[in-house]
Amino acid sequence: MSGPIIIVEYDPSRPEVFQLLRKWITDELGSIAAAVEHVGSTFFSSLPAKPIVDIDVLFSDDRALSIVI
């Protein structure tokens, strides 16, 4: 990755954006996704962060990754 890292003030829409992304991911993956978590600096309210919502997807089975890829 090249270029400057942009940090912006807290955006109160971050939780809503995460919920929309979470729904899309869980709709696509179904039971393969054991959990979909909002992680990183955008999780914390009032914390400046990069304007990117970071998400971790935990798979229900070790073999699930090969299904998704």
Rg (C-alpha, Å): 14 Å
Percent in strands: 15-25%
Instruction: Tell me the series of helices and strands, N- to C-terminal.
Output: HEEH
Mean pLDDT: 90
Structure classification? alpha+beta
Termini gap: 23 Å
Strand order of the largest sheet: 1-2
Q: What do you see in this structure?
A:
This protein has one domain. Helix content is 30%, strand content 19%. It contains two helices and two strands. The radius of gyration is 14 Å and the shape is elongated.
How is this structure best summarized?
With 69 residues, the chain is of the alpha+beta class.
Attribute tags:
69 residues; alpha+beta; two-stranded antiparallel ribbon; 2 helices; 30% helix
List the helices and strands and how they pair.
Layout: H1 14-29, E1 33-39, E2 54-59, H2 64-68
Antiparallel strand pairs: 1-2
